[in-house]
Write a structure and sequence with these properties.
With 117 residues, the protein is of the alpha+beta class. It has one helix at residues 79-110, and strands spanning 7-15, 18-31, 35-39, 45-49, 57-58, 67-75. Strands 4-3-2-1-6-5 form a 6-stranded antiparallel beta sheet. The longest helix is centred in the last third of the chain and has 32 residues, at 79-110.
């Protein structure tokens, strides 16, 4: 086992006009050919499959109250790269929502409202 591997979780959240990035260090408990077992400062042991390392995960399933978030587990050397990937993913998500809202707005604008006399 390579005990020099340092796994971190990079998390980013947008809430209204606030952007926050957190980096938390996780202790490596076990390494197999397929996964790492890691543990944060508090909470249960987590299993991260090696192919999922350095992969951004969208934690917000829907856009609610102006809040979106993403995270990624990575090795310490890739923190900056993961922050850039997380920003890119959040920007794409915002662009997608903006496009959907624009289509909704067009649908509303095409409607003619019938007034009862």
């Amino acid at each position: 086992m390579d005990s020099h591997i340092r796994i971190v979780k990079v998390s980013a959240a947008i809430e209204k006009d606030e952007f926050d990035v957190k980096v938390s260090h996780w202790r490596l408990l076990l390494e197999t050919n397929r996964y790492y077992e890691i543990k944060g400062e508090d909470g249960p042991v987590k299993r991260i499959y090696k192919e999922k390392l350095n992969t951004v995960v969208d934690e917000s399933k829907s856009y609610t109250a102006g809040q979106l978030s993403c995270s990624a587990f990575c090795i310490e050397d890739r923190i900056n790269e993961m922050q850039i990937e997380i920003l890119r993913k959040l920007q794409l998500k915002i662009n997608d929502y903006m496009n959907q809202l624009h289509l909704n707005q067009k649908a509303i604008e095409r409607q003619t409202i019938v007034r009862k006399s």
